[in-house]
Amino acid sequence: xxxxxxxxxxxxxxxxxxxxxxxxxxxGVHYRDVSGSLGRAxxxxxxxxxxxxxxxxxxxxxxxxxxELAAQxxxxxxxxxxxxxxxxxxxxDCEVGSVGGGREHAPGGTVPALGLRR
Length: 118
What we know:
Blueprint: H1 21-50, H2 57-63, H3 66-95
Helix pairs in contact: 1-3
């Protein structure tokens, strides 16, 4: 799909919503993937912490900061998920007014993944 180069009929000097929708979607999918990885890391840390019963000082020292670290990772996960969610749904809305390509999208609809891995 191509976007118009001349926005002067709308009284604008440039594209009011710059950015390639495919690149924006890929960024959002990547942020969601990172969020999933962070979630798995947090779950693994929680399982490790719950499974400790040896009373060993070395194991206790290793896991000493794991609760706080898991909380920090959880915050990062939430941020990445929010960023991904903000980028991916918005792409379809940007493409509604696109010119060319011969495809029409309903407002708020989604665009096929175009080969992006999830």
